User: Fold these one by one.
Assistant:
Number 1:
Amino acid sequence: MNIEKFQESMYKLIVETSTNLPKDVRRAIKEAKERENSGTRSAMSLATITNNIQMADENVSPICQDTGLPTFKIKVPVGANQLEMQKAIKNAIALATKDGKLRPNSVDSLTGDNSGDNLGEGTPVIKFAQWEKDYIDARLILKGGGCENKNIQYSLPCELEGLGRAGRDLDGIRKCILHSVYQAQGQGCSAGFIGVGIGGDRSSGYDLAKEQLFRSVDDVNPHEDLRRLEDYIMANANELGIGTMGFGGETTLLGCKVGVMNRIPASFFVSVAYNCWAFRRLGVQVNPETGEIQDWLYQEGEKIDFAEPAAAEIAAAAEASEAPAVQEAITLTPPITEEQIRQLKVGDVVKITGRMYTGRDAIHKYLMDHEAPVDLNGQVIYHCGPVMLKDDEGNWHVKAAGPTTSIREEPYQGDIMKKFGIRAVIGKGGMGPKTLAALQEHGGVYLNAIGGAAQYYADCIKSVEGVDLMNFGIPEAMWHLRVEGFTAVVTMDSHGNSLHSDVEKSSLEKLAQFKEPVFK
Ligand code: SF4
């Protein structure tokens, strides 16, 4: 095989996967957008999402800053040299990382050191299998941490919140799948796609669940019972009302694929792999002699262009909105006073103009026991691990910068806000009771940005004014960003209100409607 060409083909696959959503996924998002009532926060979020998809496409930049753990599934004809191919894939990964198409995401599990090129023990994941066909089938999925953390595995029989007993039968499986959607809430950047694996052991069950994510959104399950199950879930899971980003709304789930394998009599696992709306998986057919791409997978049908209508719809949604509209957004310019914060309430839309600082897991842990490198009094912390590129003059540029999952900072957030006088934190998915109590006591707000809208938010960042704690690596460092019109929704306020707990409570009540058996 021409291995240089194969490496080039793998580079193209990586770049396309990171920057250009496949057509089957675009179709599902378009349908969701049409279903959503205009004027709601969910409709506004979906408009931002489609705008973001378009921007990523045009800029050839990552759709979401979290480019996840690259996972390849490759089928090769007998005789293909897998060792050479593996080397070429790793080279392509390192190059795509250097070019800002992937975020450096591979860290030493014990020390936290980032390898800087996405290579390391166990990363990327490359799974080879042989087959009888005369071409190479190479597929890639980039699944980020926010949705990966919402994967869940059930061991039947079990008791499920809201649904009661789930037994070792099709109806028990149905309950597990509904519960998996409920427990994810908006934290995996809903609306999402789920892959379900029935049977196997704990590891092969999860493998089977992830395998389902490689199926096309439009395919029909050939197994009659599983087809019924998939149809049932798609028809009912959206009744939970969790909505895009967990803001409440019509669309929570965009796809459900179920697979089955044998198990041993003592175990009965149902494993669910949750994938966010930024469902970045693509595939190619490669000629085993020339190493060149012969065809792209998941690309049947017309390409859906989200260009103009999205911006127009943002305005229309805002105009029709009963909730505060984008035009009515409240401008915040840090440093923010306690009085300004106390005036904000859940549902308000704010636009931030001025300085904000990024802070993720490493920064939060560090700030518990150290002084901050900058004065954070009245400031805004953004839970974000951006994709950054340095130019030849040594200046940093933001390539992708959406919010990361905030709940990871729950043990630290309230203490840090009080210690340094921080007035607002921005992230996604909401935070827990400890942070809510601190917001009330200290005078702070939690702002929910649109998860995955990495291009949209990168566009709001007008300059990078500094960086501290680079020893934590690019995604974990504290970046000083100057932003303009950075839009987010107040989902936790200083009066003890949380949209997240309201939606969780109402979706639990709706979940209970599905308690009675459906499949005998
Ligand atoms: S869209 Fe959300 S869950 Fe998906 S990779 Fe991006 S931040 Fe993570």
Note: The two ends are 53 Å apart (CA to CA).
Number 2:
Amino acid sequence: MTTEDQTLSTDELNKIHAYWRAANYLSVGQIYLMKNPLLREPLTLEHVKPRLLGHWGTTPGLNFIYAHMNRVIKSFDLNALYIAGPGHGGPGIVANTWMEGTYSEYYPDIDESIEGMRRLFKQFSFPGGIPSHVAPETPGSIHEGGELGYSVSHAYGAVFDNPDLIACCVVGDGEAETGPLATSWHSNKFLNPIRDGAVLPILHLNGYKIANPTLLARMPKAELESLFVGYGYKPYFVEGSEPEAMHQKMAATMDVVVAEIKAIQKQAREEGVVSRPTWPIIILRSPKGWTGPKEVDGKKTEDFWRSHQVPFSAVREDPTHLKLLETWLKSYKAEELFDENGALLPELKALAPKHQRRMSDNPHTNGGSLLRKLHLPNFTDFAVDVPAPGAVKGEATRVQGTYLGEVMRLNEGEQNFRLFGPDETASNRWSPAFEVTNRTWMEPTIPEDDHLANDGRVMEILSEHTCQGWLEGYLLTGRHGFFNCYEAFIHIIDSMFNQHAKWLKTTSHIEWRRPVASLNYLLSSHVWRQDHNGFSHQDPGFIDHVVNKKSSVVRVYLPPDANTLLSVTDHCLRSRNYVNVVVCGKQPSEQWLTMDAAIKHCTAGVGVWDWASNDQETGEPDVVLACAGDVPTLEILAAVQILRENLPELKVRMVNVVNLMKLMPQEEHPHGLSDNEFVDIFTPDKPVIFAYHGYPWLIHRLTYRRPNHSNIHARGYKEEGTTSTPFDMVVMNDLDRFHLVIDVLGRVPSLRHKSVYLKQLMRDKLIEHQQYVREYGEDMPEVKNWKWNLGS
Ligand SMILES: Cc1ncc(C[n+]2csc(CCOP(=O)(O)OP(=O)(O)O)c2C)c(N)n1
Ligand SMILES: [Mg+2]
């Protein structure tokens, strides 16, 4: 569909064109200049930055869209924010925020003067200055765009439960080739026009990526149109390169699509939601590097991939490049755009919206400033009654699901809490939450469907990327959420986690960014209990990945039972600016701690379980049996029981770690134990057998500087797996009770030559196990029905 009116009067056309030229001028200035910002002197080498860094190609398109958004924000009084998928167009967005005055309000030394403009130019991609992308430092940004693919999911995340908000979401045509972006178009099936705002996607079809044409730009237009019709959008094409005609087309199209968005919302809000609306999308086909040099050194540059970064950079070596730069900058006629003092002319400035209507100052983009605390129930009300350690079984994540359902209920008024997951919410046992709310669903339903509704607050799509992107967008605009996922498949969003962790790390140094709610993961259906699936579903390595990130941002919890999981969950929902990773199984399993004990244990993060230990009298154990994770905890306790029954004189200390970061040195992580505290628990010199949920090397990585490190022997998952019994899984990885006992016998010096009978018994047990599971297809009764019997 195309719209070809003369929407703009000559005066409006001239002004919007001037506004765009000013943004383009300021963008080129940022990439190239450190002095002489308005070229009031002839350009010389000393005015040009020694290192030319940044991206020009996408920038004029981003500036064009920004100017046209400003126009409709004013005419429709929109509450809008801007997401630049090609976030490498940082100079353009920074230029616009400066033109709106926001930049100078946030950074007063970059004021609206010639000197301010010089500083604006110099700081860009310059040591001590600002990064080249739409980074957290950029006012109005919730999306860096450095790693491509997340613009659409961020935009939808931002507008969920913000009925008044419109996210203008520019999608690079290269970005659109990425997996995360491709799947995120389906977000429209989750947007409820009554309670949510709107996303205006603008596909930025500038034809090229870094060094190639893009697929969407070269496919036949009819196919492109059908693609978006197929995704459920109504495409509007704005195509061309002649500025005057393009301004008219864009203005006309923007008027139509905004009116259409408003009409969809009005109708839904007046009449109720009948079906999923067909939201508009703009497909903007314009030249990459538009208004830049047509050719450089005889090679096509404008409207080609060569304009992607800095179109020419031999300014120091080649005088023709310096001349080219001067001609290019002068083509924007800055003298018609900025006043004597370097400020944007008032009649141009008047084109920008005012105050918080400026996209660069929309409060939703500094989500922490809007963040309201969740109403949290008393988590102890959900406690599992544990009369004695191991006396009852429970499903930890189901208990957590009941608690989260109550959190949902208590915050229904605020509409600021959602659960996210790739089709596994019920599988991970959060189904009690469905007693309070449903799954979000805007497509038709059949009577047999289970908890689907267009006002549901559980967001399920089989795309970990989209779940992650939605949640990030939701959190960064000041709301709360929890993501549940199979442990193995959370790796799919490793890279998105990286970017979010980097964002949080950076924002903590930016004064005006207020803290946002933490990004919380429950990883369940974990490596040890993939009963239905096997090897493909077994991978506990996300934790290893997470701990690479800045310690001020990441937290990892391995609660061993339901009550500890409740305590950890409450803590996560209260925390700010972290990524909390919680790993916990969903299968019925032994419950160890009363609520009181759980609170104390989780608050400490690591501790001796005295009821399982027998070194109280001397305070000097022969061996420490440590564990982190629910399955390792079970195996360690079973090993303790075998040892204490067979070698009553052996002094055993049992230690459980809930908060993995406690193991790190105090100087490296704010939760880290001091060396003295570490030695108090793990002893200065006794063997420590450590049963860990994940890859065992991580325990060494975290403790390598600890006094007793040479005595730590870690067991964990060593990439042995298949579809088998729960106990066979631990046996395959030498993490079972029998191997752990053998480990103890081999490492306690006093036992080394005395324990041959017990060692042999353990080996026999392992052989019996092998035979039994292969014969009967389940674990031996003594394993399956094992009970802690040493009291509390
Ligand atoms: C996931 C990811 N892969 C690769 C890159 C490297 N990269 C940066 S820009 C770019 C091309 C982007 O093309 P497009 O989305 O069309 O943006 P534009 O043409 O507007 O610059 C690539 C491949 C990246 N930033 N992120
Ligand atoms: Mg492109």
Note: Residues 57-58, 86, 88, 146-149, 172-175, 178, 204, 206, 208-210, 214, 288, 308 surround thiamine diphosphate (ligand 1) (CB under 6 Å).
